């Protein structure tokens, strides 16, 4: 990568490999069988990654990750359904906002900025309110970086006989998902997160008998995953113009994911990035929002230094001058910033980042 290109420490878009970018250098006919074969292989590989080939189908949809979340909610939750949203950050809140837009009833267990949802509290709420048809949960809440207790919550939802919809946007591909042991109706991710593709579409892994019963649920034509699925099964094509170049790049990214050792290989690299980054940042005097047990290998939130010379915009601009793009914080209660661990990020870049951090603190005359 040329030294001119800034390094993204954000949770998607992320830095992609040169070979993934190069896969975009051809033009494809959206109806042509060569492109249909790419779509079919992408869908197949996604199911394989989740060990879901026997039970689920993969339905991709154009747009960013939020489009896929909205499409999944609108397709799976009937008009008279009700969703319990487990919130501990911005993405949980966005799920509730999507449901409000599409006129689906919802209620929430809101844990604030970062506390994890408690399985016992979920069980109690489900027992109390039989009108709740679905539970929505964010796997890794990217706004704080917390890894939510997905397996425990999924078990509680299964026991209560409700449907579980998981926003696994920033987790899928790096954190293990096994559809045969993790019970879910739908699990959603997007091209530009841990698989390391470029942005342009999202996808849902949906339990097939559940999707078969969803005809007529959707509030939106273009976000109707039932219709998208039926059409794709019948023709091999996307219903409306697909992001052809993005899909081709994603197939290349999936092959590179496999070559790196699949989900386990990616997890190992991202966890190493996190450990190296957190240790180095702590050595510089920064503090993490979360205790070690809750830190995800996706992104970590750091408190902004309580120093009179610290100002986020200047900190950001100076790091950018050193070629690193960091991510602002999303906490309501404390000033913070975030550093992502995903994308084409290796020891070398982490060490360069830590050097840049030290230099910027020096430039800003901040001693921690
Ligand atoms: C990235 C992300 C999304 C999708 O955000 P977009 O801006 O629409 O791509 C949704 N949920 C989580 C947890 C995410 O990390």
What is the typical, i.e. mean, pLDDT? 96
- Within the largest sheet, what's the order of strands? 2-10-9-8-5-3-4
The total beta strand count reads: 14
Please count the helical segments: 12
Q: Could you tell me how far the N terminus lies from the C terminus, measured between alpha carbons in angstroms? A: 33 Å
Query: How many domains?
Result: 2
What attributes does this structure have?
368 residues, alpha/beta, Aspartate Aminotransferase, domain 1, Aspartate Aminotransferase, domain 2, 2 domains, 7-stranded mixed β-sheet, 3-stranded antiparallel β-sheet, 12 helices, 40% helix, 17% strand, binds pyridoxal-5'-phosphate
Could you explain the architecture of this structure?
It is a single chain. With 368 residues, this protein is an alpha/beta fold. The protein has two domains: 7-13 and 262-363, Aspartate Aminotransferase, domain 1, CATH 3.90.1150.10; 26-259, Aspartate Aminotransferase, domain 2 (3-Layer(aba) Sandwich). The protein has twelve helices and 14 strands. It has helices at 18-22, 33-49, 65-76, 90-101, 119-128, 150-159, 208-212, 225-235, 244-259, 262-284, 312-321, 347-363; strands spanning 7-8, 56-62, 82-87, 105-110, 134-138, 140-141, 146-147, 163-167, 186-190, 201-207, 299-303, 324-325, 327-328, 336-340. The strands form four sheets. The protein has a seven-stranded mixed beta sheet with strand order 2-10-9-8-5-3-4, with helices on both faces. Strands 11-14-13 form a three-stranded antiparallel beta sheet, with no helix packed on it. The chain has a two-stranded parallel sheet with strand order 1-12. Helix 3 packs across helix 4 (90-101). Bound molecules: pyridoxal-5'-phosphate (PLP). Pyridoxal-5'-phosphate is lined by residues 11-12, 64-66, 69, 91, 138, 142, 167, 169-170, 190.
């Amino acid at each position: 990568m040329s030294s001119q290109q800034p390094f993204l420490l954000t949770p998607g878009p992320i830095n992609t490999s040169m070979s993934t970018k190069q896969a975009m250098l051809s033009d494809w006919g959206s109806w042509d069988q060569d492109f249909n074969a790419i779509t079919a292989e992408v869908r197949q590989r996604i199911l394989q990654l989740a060990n879901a080939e026997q039970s689920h189908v993969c339905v991709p949809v154009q747009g960013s990750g939020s489009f896929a979340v909205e499409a999944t909610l609108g397709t799976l939750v009937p008009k008279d359904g009700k969703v319990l949203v487990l919130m501990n950050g911005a993405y949980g809140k966005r799920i509730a906002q999507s449901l409000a837009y599409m006129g689906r009833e919802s209620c929430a267990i809101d844990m604030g900025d970062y506390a994890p949802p408690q399985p016992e509290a979920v069980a109690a709420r489900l027992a109390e309110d039989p009108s709740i048809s679905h539970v929505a949960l964010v796997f890794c809440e990217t706004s704080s970086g917390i890894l939510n207790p997905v397996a425990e919550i999924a078990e509680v939802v299964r026991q209560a006989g409700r449907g579980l919809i998981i926003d696994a946007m920033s987790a899928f591909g790096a954190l293990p998902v096994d559809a045969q042991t993790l019970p879910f109706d739908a699990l959603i991710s997007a091209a530009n997160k841990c698989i390391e593709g470029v942005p342009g579409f999202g996808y849902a892994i949906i339990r097939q008998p559940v999707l078969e019963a969803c005809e007529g649920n959707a509030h939106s034509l273009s976000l109707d995953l039932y219709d998208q699925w039926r059409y794709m099964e019948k023709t091999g094509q996307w219903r409306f113009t697909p992001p052809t170049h993005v899909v081709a790049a994603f197939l290349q990214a999936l092959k590179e994911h496999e070559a790196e050792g699949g989900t386990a290989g990616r997890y190992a690299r991202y966890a190493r990035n996190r450990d190296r980054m957190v240790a180095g940042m702590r050595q510089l005097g920064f503090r993490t929002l979360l205790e070690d047990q809750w830190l995800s290998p996706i992104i970590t939130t750091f408190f902004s230094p309580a120093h009179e010379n610290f100002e986020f915009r200047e900190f950001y601009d100076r790091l950018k001058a050193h070629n690193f793009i960091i991510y602002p914080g999303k906490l309501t209660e404390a000033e913070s910033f975030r550093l992502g661990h995903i994308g084409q990020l290796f020891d070398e870049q982490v060490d360069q980042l830590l050097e840049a951090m030290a230099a910027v603190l020096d430039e800003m005359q901040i001693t921690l």
